[in-house]
Amino acid sequence: MTDVSAEGQPQLSKHRIEALIDGIFAVAMTLLVIELRLPEHAHLDSEAALRGALYGLIPNLISWLISFFVLAIFWIANHRLFSYVRHADQGLLWLTILGLASAALLPFASAVNGQYASITGQALYSGVMIWLSVSTLLLARYIHRHPGLCVHPMSLGVYRATMARSFGVMLIAALAVVISYAAPGNANFVFVLMSLMRPLGARIERRHALAKAKAEAEAAVQA
């Protein structure tokens, strides 16, 4: 039987949602590798021909590598956010589904971007990245503003760190589109900057934790 909150909203099990998240991310990460295939009608009867075919897969391989780790990063972000959640409601459920829709679309965007080094392909790929980032940001905002759903409330530092990482990914995705105008085949390399988002978020969390501890110490002295 589904429990009901004080506001009359049904309290949904977060474990069913987490299972759905894990399943969709796992399928999306697996589908990425489908584009890594040799030409079906190519004559690869020599070492040179095989090396040439493998060399031609490099753009797809780069797109696969970036997309795989992007999905891993966003799966970890979802895992961290749901560690605060005790139970879900309709709002949290639909925001999660919004994010899962973008995760499910990423293999298609990755395939287009890997196969066609163009502004349109990069815009599609970056657009899905931005969609993933926005959905993560909205999910964090909802959890932060609804502490009644949580095992323990999300701190302001964690929320702002999530905001910084999400906006950082959006800026990187937008920068990739800009770079694609000059170098369509190399724009994906800008996503390496995503490796800076985790340290940035950790720094923001530490700064807020220190500020909170300082304020509590000052309050204790004044008391």
Q: What does the model show?
A:
- With 223 residues, the chain is mostly helical.
- It has one domain.
- Helices cover 70% and strands 4% of the residues.
- The chain contains 7 helices and 3 strands, in the order ββαααβαααα.
- The protein has a 3-stranded antiparallel beta sheet with strand order 1-2-3.
- A hairpin with a 5-residue loop joins β1 and β2.
- α1 (14-31) runs antiparallel to α3, α4 (90-115) runs antiparallel to α5 (119-145) and α6 runs antiparallel to α7 (197-222).
- The relative contact order is 0.11.
- InterPro entries: TMEM175-like.
Q: Which series of helices and strands comes N to C?
A: EEHHHEHHHH
Major β-sheet annotation = 3 strands, antiparallel
Q: How many helices in DSSP terms?
A: 7
Mean pLDDT: 85
Secondary structure: helix percent: over 70%
Number of domains: 1
